[in-house]
Amino acid sequence: TTLITTNDPVKIAEDYAMLQHLSGGRMDLMLGRGNTGPVYPWFGKDIRQGLPLSIENYALLHKLWREDVVDWEGKFRTPLQGFTSTPRPLDGVAPFVWHGSIRTPEIAEQAAYYGDGFFANNIFWPAEHYQRLITLYRQRWEHYGHGAPETAIVGLGGQAFIAKNSQDAVSQFRPYFDNAPVYGHGPSLEDFSEMTPLTVGSPQQVIDRYAGMRDLFGDYQRQLFLMDHAGLPLKTVLEQLDFLGGEVVPVLRKEFAQNRPASVPDAPTHAARVREVYGDGPAREARPRANRGDNLSGPSPYQDAPAAAGAAFGLGGSR
């Protein structure tokens, strides 16, 4: 996860392509805009330009991962001429991208335009608000020719505090809720839990509430939970993860698998996306050309076959 607005798209392209190689493709990239004003000036940006920054920066990031040599000029960073982002994406397939949004329909539009995933924050607002964003995303996904609305790739956030029973959960979490800047001095714990997906209760209560998300949003591919919120100490966070992983997630997986239409795709994986591009054939393995100099000479500074021994030093393949 990173901010597309306050980070340089070139750095994002190179950092996350490297992570893709290190992880063997087991990574997605989730992009946010940042919703707190002070973050922007730390990096010389203006929050009032948050949406234009998001649109322009992602257009460049998308291009950097798909073209070996990039010429580019925009409003928010210095131009690029004959630039190559390195390393190239693993197997020639860019990391899968999720566009995260709390309240901005333009981000849902952006995700649909590129055929990327849309991640609805689903934490601070009523579920009906996110239902509208996801419906828009699904409609625009179809509009841009990516498939039927139910084939769009949707992720949801969520948050919970879990104990063996609801009474213990409420009594344990209330002091943290009341004093956390993001929650405190606003609606009560009970009101906030009613108005948003925050669920404070037993494992079964969390299961029931989040299994019901499918009724609001349709079948979806990713469910993330915020568990280290409100200033919880590490010991408590680890206990929460035990509840979540041991008692909640296994049941939710079974619930979500039941009656899932065949037309609804699974969550994207690198291996599946490589098969979409190459079928049963070999994937691309880009290698720097020998003695390529700058990137302005020739169509691409990369080749798809190994260089001859010694070629990097101007030597032939044999002596």
Give a quick summary of the entry.
By secondary structure, the protein is of the alpha/beta class.
Q: Helices and strands in order, then pairings?
A:
Layout: E1 2-3, H1 9-22, E2 28-32, H2 39-42, H3 50-66, E3 70-72, E4 80-83, E5 96-101, H4 105-114, E6 117-120, H5 127-143, E7 154-156, E8 160-162, H6 166-179, H7 189-195, E9 199-201, H8 203-211, H9 213-217, E10 222-223, H10 234-257, H11 270-278, E11 287-288, E12 302-303
Parallel strand pairs: 1-2, 2-5, 5-6, 6-7, 7-10, 8-9
Antiparallel strand pairs: 3-4, 11-12
Task: Specify the helix fraction band.
Answer: 40-55%
Mean pLDDT: 91
Number of domains: 3
Shape: globular
Strand content: 5-15%
Please identify which CATH superfamily of the largest domain we are dealing with: Luciferase-like domain
Kindly identify the CATH topology of the largest domain. Answer: TIM Barrel
Got a strand count?
A: 12
Largest sheet: 6 strands, parallel
Uncertain segments? none
Query: Which structural class is indicated by helix and strand composition?
Result: alpha/beta
**CATH architectural group of the largest domain:** Alpha-Beta Barrel
Strand order of the largest sheet: 1-2-5-6-7-10
- Distance from first to last alpha carbon: 50 Å
CATH hierarchy, class of the largest domain: Alpha Beta
Please, how many helices?
11
What is the string of SSEs from the N terminus onward?
EHEHHEEEHEHEEHHEHHEHHEE
Rg: 23 Å
